[in-house]
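Subject: Sanity check before I submit

Could someone independently write out the structure tokens for this chain? I want to compare against mine line by line before I put it in a report. The sequence has 184 residues.
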Amino acid sequence: MSVDTIIHTQFPAGYVVFFGADGKIIMTPQSEEHSSTIKSMQYDTILSLGRHAKTPSDVYIDFPADENSAPDLAILREDARKEGKRYSFEDVLLISEVVSTSSARKDYDDCTAKYGRYGIPIYLIVDPYAQEVVVHTQPTGSGYIAAHTHAYGTGKLPIPLADGRTFTLDLDELPRPEPETDAH
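---
Independent answer below. Compare away.
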């Protein structure tokens, strides 16, 4: 598929579209809760770290062994510099993944092992369905030593970053899924 064709293609509403280096197109549905949660976290990064902080969302970050990731939100060191077109996992201070109904196992199991293995200092799992945030710290070769769960609606959660800054996640403002209604 040519670049011109891709630019003029109408992809289905509600999908995130990734273009792999090997030419593959990956389309993943994104729920309103998922999108709103990322937006809320981005707002908190601006309040905590400033408008120009390096906080990519759904942007590829280079990991070794072609295990590249495009996390829902990453917070990078202030002095992070792209290597080629991407940042390196070595620049990452925090990664956050927002759970969707199709990604729960990946976010809770696979990503916890992967991000711990590569020494990502803090890994947040934000789960709108369980209405909780799990903060993983102290990475190891197989995951993390510590995991602390914080319920939505319990105030502001300050998260100290390895570079001395603090990211404050407002647990009162994270969006909750709307209850499903019967269509009659």
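---
OP: Matches mine. For the report I'm noting this point. Helices lie at 3-7, 32-49, 104-117.
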